[in-house]
Amino acid sequence: MQFQLSCLLFIRDNSGRLLMIKRKKPPNLNTWSPPGGKLEMSKGESPFECAKREAFEEVNICLENKDLRLFGYVSEKSYEGSSHWLMFLFDCLVCIDHTPKDIEEGTFGFYSREEIDKLAIPPSDHQLVWPYYDRREEGIWGIKADCSTNFLNLEIEASPTNHIKRGC
Q: Does the CA dihedral 135-26-41-18 come out positive or negative?
């Protein structure tokens, strides 16, 4: 299976609602997710470079490294039975005051955190993404999931508590 690297951007408006895109293409066809996209690995693009590029391409905002805070990663084995994914999760510290125009990848909308739980989001995001977004202020999270069976096997590889120095 192919391995994909990507980033997701958690961008808010001035009232704290989160920007979501209803995807017109796989993966996650016809579901809502934060904007983002694949790293351009052939160019040696870093996760921060990807996040800034995707913010400009999809949302038309120019970001600097200081505008982004990495709060975690999600590693998915055999997602949708077609590929493995490593997604870097970025909290955008810059708010926007408009809904971006529709793009080839999908349609945008702003939703409260509570509304997102009721949207058609990728089923695994309920366990792999949103609980750690809700805890993003605690520190960096690392989540590993095996999606190859009907039961999502989830493991926390990194959490804010295991970053505490504990001796030799």
A: negative
Question: What pLDDT does residue 26 have?
Answer: 85
State if pTM tops 0.70. yes
Residue 32, Cα to own-chain centre: how many angstroms?
11
Smallest Cα–Cα separation from 39: which of 48, 28, 26, 30?
A: 48
Digit-coded pLDDT (tens) for 122-138: 989 999 999 999 999 99
Q: Quickly list DSSP for 103-118.
A: BTTEEEEEE-HHHHTT
Q: What CATH code is carried by the domain that includes residue 69? A: 3.90.79.10
With b meaning 16 or more CB within 10 Å and e meaning fewer, what string describes 41-55? eeeebebbebbbbbb
Residue 82 inside a domain? The answer is yes
Residue 168 lies in a domain: no
Match 């038309």 to its residue by tokens. Answer: 60
Query: What is the span of the domain harbouring residue 135?
Result: 2-163
Alpha-carbon distance values, 33 to 26, 107, 112, 118, 119 (Å): 12, 11, 13, 12, 9
The whole-number pLDDT of residue 165 equals 55
Number of domains in the chain: 1
Residue 117 covered by a domain: yes
For residue 67, being part of any structural domain is answered with yes
